[in-house]
Amino acid sequence: MLDCEKNDEISIIAKISSWDIDAYFCIVEKYKEKLLTYILRLTNVTYEEAENLLQEVFIKAYKNINSYDEKYSFSSWIYKMTHNLVIDYYRKNKDKETISLETQDEEYKNLIDLLDNWQDIEKDLVKKELILEIRKILNELDLKYREVLILRYLEEKDYNEISDILRISPWTVASLINRGKKIFAWKINEKNMRF
Amino acid sequence: MKDKFSENIISKIKNEDIKNLPKMYFVFMNFMIWLFFVFSILFWSLALSITFSYIFNDDILFNSRIWIFYLLKTYLPIFWVIIFAVFSLLTYVNFKFTSSWYKFPIVWVLVWNILTTLFLWYFFFYIWVSQNFEYFFRKNISFYSNYLVKDMESRMVSAWQNPDDGLLVWKILEVWEKYLKFKDYDESIWKVDFSDSIIRWRVVLETWYNIKIIWKKLSNDEFIAEEIRPYMMWSKWMMWDFETDDAIYNGWWRWMWGDMMRWGWMMR
């Protein structure tokens, strides 16, 4: 088995391209947690469904590994693939009401920090209900706003990476983030949420 | 996450013998997408150039009583407008598939597209690609010539068959001195004085030739032709004769010559 620590991503991808299936283990190991969390944040799916989706993502990524262009980061490439599969799934199951509680409270710290600009937040009092409310508000947002906010504040991607993942210009990313933040804050105010 | 998630993925790939697609496949697909993109842009510009060449024909240059609404109503080539719309859509869809265009703001892309289209539009006119392309359609596609061109002719005739507004179209029955015996499209016969009228270039004042007349009524039986125009429509870039269903010009040098003649004649 390949030593994942001693090989950089590009050389691992080169090995996968030349039919070294075991090298793919390193890619799966590196991205499985990140992508699983991303899927759970973006959709309303259960943990098991998210795992199934993730499996689909990795199989598809393996088949299409030769379409990866080294001009872009591999992370953006695999996030883009995940995003596309998730969006397909989301569109097919739009009406699902399930809210996943599997993600960690800490993940929402960035969004709560964001709210700090508008509201007097007592960060120490973050509770499970609050997390759930934030999750609900995120789910109420249009997908276009939700995905940029998640990528920016939860996945901590920069504008160029978001642009590559969503295939929109960095200017559009900036504008969507700006509007998304305003709508998010407005919904928080509307619900009179106290932290 | 389940234990052994990564191992399960690798096992699935091995057990199901899943192969990654070869690099050449993606290179080829990328090439095809670009090829189709270029093809869409070319067709798009071609359709636009043909549409404009139909609309901006001499009826707009000659006069006064003709306005843009008339030109659109009469000469708008629906077929080419549809082709234009379809290829606009295809260009847009194809654009979405190209690898890096999303990096640019949509306004830049639109400006780039408009500039390219305008350049190609003019270029196609200049080297006679659009005219020959359209001519090919008329000669080889019976639906196009039998239905679409005839439809345009009938639209033109119905716009010009309007005696109350001083517009007439159809055939010359007789010519003597400075008078015409003229049968309009509704089979009415008129006696028209053309002694002081402007007779546009390519008008043939002989029996059985088709013409268009802009006239003024002096009394119940006296009509003075202000202007006589050829029945065929033609523009700087295109010319066709409804009667013979033929293109008049078929080479850039003829176009240049025709253009010089036309401007000389308009300046007189």
The end-to-end span of chain B amounts to 88 Å
Portion in strands of chain B: 15-25%
Widest beta sheet: strand line-up of chain B: 1-2-3-6-5
The overall strand count of chain A is: 0
User: Main β-sheet of chain B, in a few words?
Assistant: 5 strands, mixed, barrel
What is the rounded Rg of chain A? 18 Å
Amount of helix of chain B = 40-55%
Main sheet makeup of chain A: none
- C-alpha-based Rg of chain B, rounded: 27 Å
* Pattern of helices and strands of chain A: HHHHHHHHH
Given as residue ranges, the uncertain stretches of chain B (5+ residues, pLDDT < 50) are 235-243, 245-257
- The total of helices of chain A stands at 9
Indicate the structural class of chain B.
alpha+beta
Number of helices of chain B: 9
Mean pLDDT level of chain B: 75
The CA-CA distance between the termini of chain A, in Å, is 49 Å
> What ranges of chain A have pLDDT less than 50 throughout 5 or more consecutive residues?
97-103, 117-122
Q: What's the rounded overall pLDDT mean of chain A?
A: 79
Helix share bin of chain A: 55-70%
Textual characterization of the structure:
The complex is a heterodimer of chains A (195) and B (268). Helix content of chain A is 64%, strand content 0%. With 195 residues, chain A is mostly helical. Chain A is elongated, with a radius of gyration of 18 Å. Chain B is an alpha+beta fold. Helices cover 54% and strands 18% of the residues of chain B. Chain B has nine helices and nine strands. Chain B has a five-stranded mixed beta barrel with strand order 1-2-3-6-5. In chain B, strands 7-8-9 form a three-stranded antiparallel sheet, with no helix packed on it. Chain B is rod-shaped.
Give the helices and strands, then pairings.
The complex is a heterodimer of chains A (195) and B (268).
Chain A: H1 9-17, H2 24-42, H3 47-63, H4 74-92, H5 109-115, H6 128-140, H7 143-154, H8 159-166, H9 170-190
Helix pairs in contact in A: 2-3, 2-4, 3-4, 4-8, 7-9, 8-9
Chain B: H1 5-15, H2 23-55, H3 58-62, H4 68-75, H5 78-97, H6 106-126, H7 129-140, H8 142-160, E1 167-176, E2 179-184, E3 189-193, E4 198-199, E5 210-219, E6 222-230, E7 233-234, E8 239-241, E9 246-247, H9 252-267
Parallel strand pairs in B: 3-6, 4-6
Antiparallel strand pairs in B: 1-2, 1-5, 2-3, 5-6, 7-8, 8-9
Helix pairs in contact in B: 2-5, 2-6, 2-7, 4-8, 7-8
